[in-house]
Amino acid sequence: MASGQPINWRADVPVRGNVQRKENVRNPETLPSSEIAAETNVRAPGGCQQVVTEPSPGPKTTSPLRPAWVEIDLRKLRRNFELIHQDKPNDVQVLAVVKDEGYGHGALPVARTALECGASFLALSTLEEAIALRDRGLQCRLLLLGDRQENELPFCVEHELTCCVSEPRTVDKLGELAARAGTRVPVHLKINTGMNRYGVLWTEAGALAERICATKSLALEGVLSHFAQSDEADKTFANLQYARFNEALAEMTRRSIAVKLRHLCNSGGFLDLRHAQFDMVRLGILPLGVFPSSVCRRIPGIEPVMSVKARIAAIQSLQPGDSVGYGMRFTATSRRRIAVLPLGYGDGFPRVRNQGCALIHGQRAPLVGGVAMDALTVDITDIPAAQLWDEAVMMGRQAAAEISVHEVAKLRGSVSYDVLTAWRTRLPRIYLT
Ligand SMILES: Cc1ncc(COP(=O)(O)O)c(C=O)c1O
User: Fold this and answer.
1) How confident is residue 58, by pLDDT bands cut at 50, 70 and 90?
2) CATH assignment of 77-288?
3) Residue nearest to atom 13 of ligand 1 (CA)
4) Would the N or C end of the chain have less CB density within 10 A of its end CB?
């Protein structure tokens, strides 16, 4: 049977800059995260351990790490999970949503940290994502969000992946496959309470739950729905969905159907609709240190896990009348000092012109000209200490200054979720542990 696509996150650790080179480093994908630091033994200036991964598989390379990278601070991820655990009642379980490479942070390191911090389930979107985690040795409960097609179901049974079901045909087919495999497969019934994407309509959920219960080879372990609007100030529709969910649950009770795991909340719901937390919450963006919107409740101490950084690759001195880059989108009206940063829209940075900034020496350096595929330019005239190879932050903190995910999202004309997942794999990931 075919196995999942390989995930392009390696750790053959060619390192540069402030990180020392270490040969024969084992791949952290195959290690428990508690071992990662000990195995790699590369030390960052702040004393923390770094694990460097390369974006694509292939032969070991001796080339230096690219001077533009995504930094993932697993210590912050751990702390965020701790704060989330303190914020919720003890009996509410956490399911960590690690789809789309853990929202761009790397599915495996995020998954491992989540499990070590007490998550009882992980959730993914595609079969390939789930099988990739199985192939890397994760034996925990994995829930596949969304609906599965018929040809995917045998793989779900084989790899012990828990499916969301919302169609009688899926129930019957999965039941058949489970019976043939001589096993009893747990399923979660997905209810449409107003999102109108996946799920059986809440008024019809009782009947489908009964069909699942009548299938001996299936066990109705969970019932879930998904909020369409949980992180906005107006909770009217979210509360209507909550009421519909309760209506469906009451109908199951009337039919003497007991369900162990009822779950409705994503991060926005977890923060602002505590009455809807039920038995489990499904958290994606919050443990990564990003609040889903500007209006939802804050948990003090939660911090972003991802930063994007680059080193100054060149410095140009402009005279009045000189322009910068393609299309000459910026022309100096006075003498300016311009730093070239070696990342661009080919790395996922928004393709803007004369908008946005980088942090250099803890100060904002405005972006000038247009963003190219592999480079962008910032004005460092007001940062005289800035020099070649200095570190610049495109997203994250430097000293007291910060460029938030939401600020980058504004540049991109999009949302934080899109920004986190948009950084391309050609940017190496560095893990701080
Ligand atoms: C069904 C479902 N539950 C939970 C989540 C997690 O959402 P969030 O990242 O806002 O916590 C998602 C993410 O899209 C989802 O699709």
Assistant:
1) low
2) 3.20.20.10
3) 284
4) N
Q: Residue 394 C-alpha to ligand 1 middle, in angstroms?
A: 26
Query: Which regions of the chain carry the CATH code 2.40.37.10?
Result: 311-399
pLDDT computed for residue 65 by the predictor: 86
The class level of CATH for 311-399 reads mainly beta
> Catalytic pick from 99, 190, 235, 309?
99
Q: Is 267 in the pocket of ligand 1 (CB under 6 A)?
A: yes
Using alpha carbons only, give the angle 229, 234, 235 rounded to the nearest 5 degrees.
60
Is the distance from CB of 338 to CB of 379 less than 8 angstroms? Answer: yes
Determine the number of helices (DSSP H) and then strands (DSSP E) in the chain: 12, 22
pTM of the model: 0.88
- Indicate the angle between helix axes 168-180 and 205-214, nearest 10 degrees: 10
Of ligand 1's listed atoms, the one at least distance from the Cα of 97 is 6
Catalytic residue among 60, 216, 260, 326: 326
